[in-house]
């Protein structure tokens, strides 16, 4: 289904997120024929960062040329470019935006729907939302709210109140682009469509779960955002715990938004409070010298923690989450360690290393990602020597289309279609902040780590013992 005609308003249109993901993503949607028949994209920013329509088009062209999947040229680009315009908006002076939106709507015959995307720093959310309320723009429209949603329980509640004073919950799309990743969506299929996996997905068969997202990139000029956020809020609360929700949820009755989100929220409700002693924070050496970072900054650029989902399915199974900047590899991997059968009969022939690598389900949720089941097999020969074997699913082996939409693309499309399934819900977010409270009230100071390493020493072994972080080389 193609969405109805839309005017998409991009707040933060000249910012980092719009440049890297949103503008290239919108162009990719246009190329894929998934934008509405008729649409306009209005960029917006405070007056001090205002640009002309022409400069916004040039900015869009640059961003697609640098970060897009294809070149900004040809008839597809021309149509897209013609749909772009810019209107500045300050809380007290929204007139240029109002004017630009009106012009865009008129050009579509006055019956287009409005979708706002708040790609602005979190402190700016309330003033933009309030402005959308008092100008009347909010009426009959939808709003995508970026992350992190609040910085703790109190601020998330306050933000929800601000939003609900202007928008009905059915109009609100809290975005977490990891939930839009093709390979994350596929976890539902893997878990619930397969007799091979479904019966073992519980505490009787799984010893522990790892959700591991190390990054090689550093700050990339985002100091202003990152200093007030840090790895725990930027990645753990936002993305990794959302992925955990999908790994750990009960089967929903249907895949409609309500049952699907109900089940995820129940996981967050069952999270044990996160004790400071279960978290290792790190800061890469040299972070304090980055432009825009305080010389005595206490912001963590790395966080690894142990979480527990205290419910019938998962009681006693530790979930280890890890993410950080400037680490040795960029990966997005979920590993489920499986309970071993008694291996005594194989003991003389089993190296400890192979034993450790077998008995695992590994889900790489990069793009396009892959899934592997690691098991032990007999090495050909006259003796019963065991070696590591793997069954691997790769998209390209099974489907002609190896790449789906990128996370943001899928979610912007869903928002236009008013489908909230893959968006986070206020009660779920509040449960996550609630569980995070003991850690947030008394966070351990970040320990230094060398850029290009695996983070501070206690996170490498101690935190996860007796298990080990598991990152297979590739699919
Ligand atoms: C963003 C974080 O939400 O996700 C970034 O703010 C992080 O710090 C990014 O690098 C990772 O997402 P992806 O999809 O680019 O790997």
Question: What's the structural blueprint in terms of helices and strands?
Answer:
Elements: E1 6-11, H1 16-31, E2 39-44, H2 53-67, H3 74-82, E3 84-86, H4 95-107, E4 113-118, H5 125-134, E5 141-145, H6 153-166, E6 172-174, H7 182-192, E7 206-214, H8 223-227, H9 230-248, H10 257-269, E8 279-284, E9 302-308, E10 318-324, E11 333-338, H11 352-357, E12 360-364, E13 370-378, E14 386-394, H12 395-398, H13 407-416, H14 426-441, E15 447-449, H15 457-460
Parallel strand pairs: 1-2, 1-4, 2-3, 4-5, 5-6, 7-10, 8-15
Antiparallel strand pairs: 7-11, 8-9, 9-10, 11-12, 12-13, 13-14
Helix pairs in contact: 1-2, 1-13, 5-6, 6-14, 9-10, 10-14
Write structural notes for this entry.
With 475 residues, the chain is an alpha/beta fold. The chain is 35% helix and 19% strand. It has 15 helices and 15 strands. The chain has helices at 16-31, 53-67, 74-82, 95-107, 125-134, 153-166, 182-192, 223-227, 230-248, 257-269, 352-357, 395-398, 407-416, 426-441, 457-460, and strands at 6-11, 39-44, 84-86, 113-118, 141-145, 172-174, 206-214, 279-284, 302-308, 318-324, 333-338, 360-364, 370-378, 386-394, 447-449. The protein has a 9-stranded mixed β-sheet. Strands 3-2-1-4-5-6 form a 6-stranded parallel β-sheet, with helices on both faces. Helix 5 links the parallel strand 4 (113-118) and strand 5 (141-145). The radius of gyration is 23 Å and the shape is globular. The model has no long low-confidence stretch (mean pLDDT 95). The chain binds 6-O-phosphono-beta-D-glucopyranose. 6-O-phosphono-beta-D-glucopyranose (BG6) binds next to loops. Catalyzes the oxidation of glucose 6-phosphate to 6-phosphogluconolactone. This is Glucose-6-phosphate 1-dehydrogenase. Pfam families: G6PD_C, G6PD_N. The active site is at 239 (proton acceptor). Its EC number is 1.1.1.49.
């Amino acid at each position: 289904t193609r969405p109805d005609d839309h005017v998409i308003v991009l707040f933060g249109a000249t910012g980092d997120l719009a440049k890297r993901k949103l503008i290239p993503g919108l162009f990719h949607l246009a190329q894929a024929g998934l934008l509405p028949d008729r649409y306009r994209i209005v960029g917006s920013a405070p007056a001090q960062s205002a640009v002309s329509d022409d400069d916004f088009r040039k900015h869009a062209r640059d961003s697609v040329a640098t970060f897009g999947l294809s070149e900004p040229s040809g008839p597809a680009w021309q149509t897209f470019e013609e749909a772009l315009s810019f209107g500045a908006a300050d809380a007290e002076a929204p007139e240029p935006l109002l004017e630009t939106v009106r012009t865009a709507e008129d050009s579509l015959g006055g019956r287009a729907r409005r979708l706002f995307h708040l790609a602005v720093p979190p402190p700016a959310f309330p003033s933009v939302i309030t402005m959308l309320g008092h100008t009347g723009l909010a009426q009959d429209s939808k709003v995508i709210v970026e992350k992190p949603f609040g910085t703790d329980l109190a601020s998330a509640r306050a933000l929800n109140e601000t939003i609900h004073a202007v928008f009905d919950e059915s109009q609100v799309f809290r975005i977490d682009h990891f939930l839009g990743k093709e390979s994350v969506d596929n976890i539902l299929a893997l878990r619930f469509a397969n007799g091979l996996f479904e019966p073992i997905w519980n505490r009787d068969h799984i010893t522990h779960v790892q959700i591991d997202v190390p990054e090689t990139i550093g700050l990339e000029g985002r100091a202003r955002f990152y200093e007030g956020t840090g790895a725990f809020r930027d990645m753990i609360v936002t993305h990794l715990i959302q992925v955990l929700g999908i790994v750990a949820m009960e089967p929903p009755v249907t895949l409609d938004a309500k049952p699907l989100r109900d089940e995820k929220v129940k996981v967050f409700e069952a999270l044990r409070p996160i004790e400071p002693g279960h978290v290792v924070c790190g800061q890469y050496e040299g972070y304090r010298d980055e432009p825009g970072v305080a010389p005595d900054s206490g912001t963590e650029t790395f966080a690894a923690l142990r979480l527990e989902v205290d419910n019938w399915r998962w009681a006693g199974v530790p979930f280890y989450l890890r993410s950080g900047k400037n680490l040795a590899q960029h990966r997005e991997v979920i590993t489920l360690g499986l309970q071993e059968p008694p291996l005594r009969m194989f003991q003389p022939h089993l190296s400890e290393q192979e034993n450790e690598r077998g008995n695992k389900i590994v889900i790489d949720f990069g793009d396009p990602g892959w899934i592997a089941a690691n098991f032990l097999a007999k090495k050909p020969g006259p003796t019963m020597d065991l070696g590591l074997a793997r069954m691997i699913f790769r998209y390209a082996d099974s489907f002609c289309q190896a790449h789906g939409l990128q996370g943001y693309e899928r979610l912007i499309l869903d928002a236009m279609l008013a489908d909230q399934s893959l968006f986070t819900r206020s009660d779920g977010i509040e449960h996550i902040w609630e569980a995070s409270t003991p850690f947030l009230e008394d966070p351990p100071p970040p320990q230094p780590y060398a850029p290009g390493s695996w983070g501070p020493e206690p996170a490498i072994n101690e935190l996860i013992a007796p298990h080990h972080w598991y990152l297979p080389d590739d699919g």
